[in-house]
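Customer escalation, tier 2.

The customer says the design service returned an amino acid string that "doesn't look like it belongs to this structure." They asked us to rerun it and document both sides in this ticket. The original structure tokens are below, unchanged.
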């Protein structure tokens, strides 16, 4: 177990759910926690409760993500852990962001990809762990064109969500391939089906799952945050293997498409182009 005192941990999407649970646990354990969220009111309330710094960014705007990255880079010379946790299931109707991409793909993948790349120098120098919140939904994603970030054809809300979560795993693997030798240790994980406000914007069965009576048999946010906390507080290369996908602290085999290195390269290049990175 790593000593958390003075370690700087950035958790995105920490105004609710497993992000908030992880931030609460890590702060109480002595870490220097920084949180981000979309809602100023909710994020500020959590920050004041935990007595931690906070930043506001709506991931449906890449300009706001760039500003977040610039602010974090300017304010912190060391970031020991970056937890890319922000995301969710979007509405039942397809929506396109002002940047021109499917909202689920942008919020769940492109924004975290961009933030990580903006912070790359700091993360490498800090020998940081980058932890990406994925989902078992990636197992059921049929994604034939990894360069398609707009999802113009054959859209479904759960399909878009599954594809974005597969992208989280592919991003993790390519981040590991490119930057592990420079100090970054990356991992993706599945938190389980957690009792949060996660599905409020989504109609039908998914909203019933997250908002109806069945929610009381789902995991608590604290249990859902367990693997994130474990990855953030244990030693990469010793306690866990960088570049892998985890569930319940164990390596799990992801969607077969995530095991193809060429797929990871294609997605990285498409994501770089979409976010304006060189």
């Amino acid at each position: 177990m790593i000593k958390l005192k003075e370690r700087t941990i950035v958790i995105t999407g920490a105004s609710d759910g497993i992000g908030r649970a992880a931030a609460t646990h890590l702060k109480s354990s002595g870490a220097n926690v920084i949180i981000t969220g979309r809602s100023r009111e909710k994020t500020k309330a959590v920050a004041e409760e935990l007595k931690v710094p906070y930043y506001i960014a709506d991931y449906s705007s890449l300009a706001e993500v760039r500003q977040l990255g610039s602010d974090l880079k300017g304010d912190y010379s060391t970031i020991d852990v970056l937890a890319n946790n922000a995301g969710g299931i979007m509405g039942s109707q397809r929506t396109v962001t002002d940047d021109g991409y499917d909202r689920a793909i942008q919020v769940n993948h492109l924004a975290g990809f961009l933030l990580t790349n903006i912070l790359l120098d700091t993360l490498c120098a800090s020998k940081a762990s980058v932890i990406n919140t994925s989902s078992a939904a990636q197992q059921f994603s049929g994604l034939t064109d990894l360069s398609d970030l707009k999802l113009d054809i054959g859209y479904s809300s759960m399909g878009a969500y599954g594809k974005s979560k597969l992208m989280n795993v592919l991003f993790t693997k390519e981040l590991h391939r490119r930057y592990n030798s420079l100090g970054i240790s990356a991992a993706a994980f599945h938190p389980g089906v957690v009792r949060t406000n996660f599905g409020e914007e989504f109609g039908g069965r998914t909203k019933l799952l997250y908002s109806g009576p069945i929610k009381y048999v789902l995991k608590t946010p604290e249990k859902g945050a367990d693997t994130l906390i474990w990855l953030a507080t244990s030693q990469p290369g010793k306690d866990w293997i960088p570049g892998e996908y985890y569930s319940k602290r164990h390596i799990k085999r992801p969607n077969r498409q995530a095991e193809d290195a060429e797929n990871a390269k294609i997605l990285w290049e498409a994501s770089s182009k979409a976010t304006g990175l060189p």
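Tier 2 assessment: The sequence is consistent with the input. The beta strands are 8-11, 32-37, 54-56, 81-84, 129-133, 185-190, 245-247, 250-251. Residues 201-205 have pLDDT under 50 and may be disordered. Sent an explanation to the customer and offered a walkthrough call.
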